Amino acid sequence: MDTDVFEDERPRLLGLAYRMLGSITDAEDVVQDAWLRWQGADRSTIDNPAAWLTTVTSRLGLDRLRAQQRRKEDYVGPWLPEPMAGGPGPEERAELAESLTLGFLTVLDRLGPVERAVFLLADVFGEPFPVVARAVGKSEEACRQIASRARRRVREERAGAQAADRALLEKLVLATAAGDVDAVIGLLAPEVVLVSDGGPHRHAARHPVVGPERVARLLVNLAARWNDDNDTAHFAEVNGAPALVMRIAGAPLVLTADRVDNRVATIRVCLNPAKLAALDRPVRLV
Questions:
Q1: How many domains are there within the chain?
Q2: Lower CB density within 10 Å: C or N end of the chain?
């Protein structure tokens, strides 16, 4: 019975931890630690198991997030969230689906740890502020103020951006594969930015590439490397949005994009193999 309670909550807890950390590996570790805490808890003192598990997972996630931020200081090049296969089911709320996209996770990464946790608990998962306050160790009033600031920052950062649909992504890929720089430029927003995350072992741009001309030429040069019969490319759902999944010379690559006014405004290329393992094993979360 106790196991059933935890398993019923696991997808939600994993979804919360993943959005907090941007890493499936770290999120699964946090949820496993929450399971161990649940196993050792005195159940007679727990009136609301879901709220109790939310609090424990949030606190463990905050500890892991602070340690993760220290690791990021030594990370080579830009850091992107870890992509995951699939996304929430069709029955999930729109807020849950949007908050899983890589574009949204990148914005969340600019928030402080407590700010990120409060925003996710209050605005994305709809937890009441008494639960939020217990989870982060702040007063309810402080949490309301934190949520308001975080909400404003997220709204400003997103500024009308949405995950690019498959049709726009296909146009970009076809123009890039054809080596048509002008056609690629025509699909890009004036303020377009390309961010690539190769980690310590893969070659990637160490700084964001800004502007249509520079981004277009980089994409065309990248496509020119795809010339082996064993290289593959296909479209897939990644974090609930269309993505291009490639394997060049045996090495994986995932490309996702955001659009503004039906032009590509942000491109994210994840090449770090340590972050791409989750693509081979769809994870159930909400």
A1: 2
A2: N
Question: Between helices 24-40 and 49-72, what is the axis angle to 10°?
Answer: 140
Answer whether 267's CB lies under 8 Å from 250's CB: no
CA-CA distance, 134 to 53, in Å (whole number)? 11
Expressed in angstroms, the distance from the first to the final Cα of the chain is 22
Spatial separation of the C-alpha atoms in residues 111 and 188, rounded to whole Å:
27
Residue 92 structure tokens: 């999930």
**How confident is residue 228, by pLDDT bands cut at 50, 70 and 90?**
low
* Number of other CB atoms surrounding residue 159 within 10 Å: 9
Q: What is the CATH number of the domain that holds 206?
A: 3.10.450.50
Question: Would you list the DSSP string of 124-169?
Answer: IS---HHHHHHHHT--HHHHHHHHHHHHHHHHHHHTT-EEPPHHHH
Token pair in block for residue 222? 């990248």
Computed over every residue of the chain, the mean pLDDT equals: 92
Same domain as 221, residue 136: no
Global pTM reads 0.93
